[in-house]
Sequence to fold (87 residues):
Amino acid sequence: MSSAMQIAAGGLAGANLRLTAAAEQVARLDAGPGGTGRPDGSGLPEAVILDLSPTALDAIGAGTAFEADTIAARDAAETTRLLDVRA
Fold:
């Protein structure tokens, strides 16, 4: 595997981890004794204490990184194919 392909694969793995972490943050909304997201089990957290914007930014960033690394991997494969044809 070429170094460009290895770098792209590492980037894809990192983006996957970031997306998984963001998904886990959203899933934790159902945490708490009553599974409602509040320590006292009385309902969902109030909007003022629930801020998903960092999580949303992480998910968007991971998606963008995944797309960029996919393009890099595709380009590395295409370059390798072209070099093989010329050899």
About this structure: The radius of gyration is 20 Å.
